[in-house]
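step=predict obj=Flagellar biosynthesis protein FlhF n=452
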Amino acid sequence: MRVKRYIVDSMPEALDKIRIDLGQDAIILNSKPIKTGGIFGLFGKQQIEVVAAVDEKEAEKPKRTPAQPSREPIIRAAAANPTAAKRAYQSMAADALANTVAETVAPPDPIVLADAGSVTVRERAPLTAQGGEQSALTRTVNQEDAAQAPRSQEAGGKPAAAAHAGSDQLAVEVRHMRQMFEKLLTSDSRQQLPQPIQTVRDRLLQQEVTEEAASEIIRQLIMEAEPGWEAAEAVKRAEELIIQSLQKAVIEPVGIESNVRYAFFFGPTGVGKTTTIAKLAANCMLKEKRKIGFITADTYRIAAVEQLKTYANILNVPFEVVFSPKEIPQAMERLSGCDLVFVDTAGRNYRNDEYVQGIRELVVADQNSLNFMVLSLASKYSDMRTIIRNFGDVPVSRVIFTKADETEAYGAMLNVAAETNFSISYITTGQNVPDDIIVATPRLIANMIMGE
């Protein structure tokens, strides 16, 4: 193995020299800022010391075609030394090479941009080796030779799909590399992460945030980390990152808009749909002065009809019972004088395809209706994910999280926001009607997760 040390002014300069001296298979073992020159350590010039190495056997191998880039040097370094791999990954992301296009912000999933002469795969870079600036890991593959084959196939009457297939394969390769480095960067090793950032990671995992969502937050923290950070500062910054990630998942205002005529509520059994309906109905009636009506299709659970009927009597609002989806239009017609009608559905086993199909036939998806999926924070996120998947055919407008008072882990809200396109609207905190329900906001959810 050849090892070489460089003293440079910037990481792009180092990458150019490494590529010229050691080739494309070289990896960066270490990089750190140093001062050169000056008198007695004063007035020195700020530079960067970079140590790179290459396996001579790898350098002697014939060069691969650009359409099939190799991950072997990086994977071998990752297996031998995770810390070195982390630095190599950071250095790769420092800035684009001379023939790449740098981006300050890139989406987490690979984006494939194809044109007549090249295929570019852009991947978000977790960290630069100098100063923590954000850049994009961009790899451009010249496919002039590969393009000849599709053109010759066109002449023979075959479709020109080879370029697209090659770009898709390259995107998959980059995605696998990204996942591998995320695991290395966020593995449970306190020697790899600074203590303040490790504190944030421990908190996220304690809150049952998924490994993928936690990795994204930790990666952004590493990019913004400053020397001398205390745990409280890291936690505060993590909270701000969570708020940013939730901006698209929480639509403001999150209340039930004035143009909405029907609000459907569905979800698994025991999550508190009926009580949640009573809370929202009371608030709409008492605070917004809207005429409210109730429809229940929950004729399976014992006393379910009586429960919602009791709330209807307390609020003095009309109440209808339906036994099948075909009866919904008639019930809506009888409640046509109401400004807003709340529809309660039966809570049954979400693994039952027949029940899910019944919900699909019951709910209405148009501009005058909202469909609320009700999920319990007291349930495991693995079960919650299964519920969401099984209700995939039901048009979900927004999500309500219940039973926040029965758990200390609130990471499921961040997980749902990260993995779905659902909007989070309300959080219930008890059984008192109408008080124990609050509007979900990004800051509220971030405070719940980070413990403030």
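step=describe
The two ends are 51 Å apart (CA to CA).
step=end
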